[in-house]
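Can't paste images in this forum, so I'm doing it all in text. The chain is below; anyone willing to post the predicted structure tokens underneath?
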Amino acid sequence: MPLPEKALIAEVRRLAGSSSRPRRHGSSPVVAAGIGAWITAGIGDDCAVLRLPPGHEILVTTDFTLEGIHFRREWHPPEVVGHRCLARGLSDIAAMGGEPLAAFLSLALPSDLPQTWVRRFMRGFVALGKKYDTPLAGGDTAESPNGILADIIVVGSVPKGKAVLRSGARPEDRIYVSGELGGSAAALMEMRARPKKKLNPRDYPRHFHPEPRIELGRILREKGLATAMIDLSDGLSTDLAHICEESGVGAEIESTAIPRAEVGKPAREVNLDLAVHGGEDYELLFTSPRGKRIPARIAGVPIAQIGHITRRPKIFLFNQRVGYELEPRGWEHFRQ
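Text version of the structure:
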């Protein structure tokens, strides 16, 4: 059973390394007593107080992590659930070319959940937050009648007018993707096929420990390389459709150019269907003007050109010269 609410909040606060020590109004934004650089008041008050970097705009994103939808306790260790929960929000900040400032976590927990589960969840969450300098600044707790619910909010910043939107793609822009695709969906398919088998997270890293591409997104924004960008949370086919819809354009992509993940042991390449429609890889999909040189690796991450933007508002997938219209078949809630 989780601790009573007051004790639970104190435990979360301890695990997050937060402090209630007051800071003088107008003090410079420096890391002190475990509070992030741009947080002047965190856990312990009715609201957090954030200081926005000069000349920047604020980015805010929110995501649910739901038991039975995004994870299962028998498949996913608590540390993995905490890591993935925060990674979802950080990936959205990366897709805008932004820098994360703080996270807010609301947890609804069933009464029969062991407190050790909560503690391990927070370890995974906090470890990723420390890696990307994203402290936990607040949130909420409640009792859940059915399963675990975690709602993550990540606040970030981006220089004024410089956020990379989904609506900036133009005809003849080239389409690029980072990393490899299909690895997370392959793990999910394997677990569904053999639900009692526990997978080794090291054999399926993109599913169990996805890495938000914060540095890559920042470089693409700073160097003006991306005209539009989105993170691949719902699958290439669905997320590319989002860019095309917002930009009023279409696309043509080449199947042989799509980088496919290798998973399992011994390692095997995922099939094209998983690479095109599988979600939760949290790589970046972006467009760039024709003639703009894009390095093969940025911030240590491989970059692959997979197609180009067209005027006709449809998406086609080609296998060399043979093509067909690509329907978005990635993840979509409430779809029958």
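Residues 78-95 form the longest helix (18 residues). The domain at 5-157 is CATH 3.30.1330.10 (60s Ribosomal Protein L30; Chain: A;).
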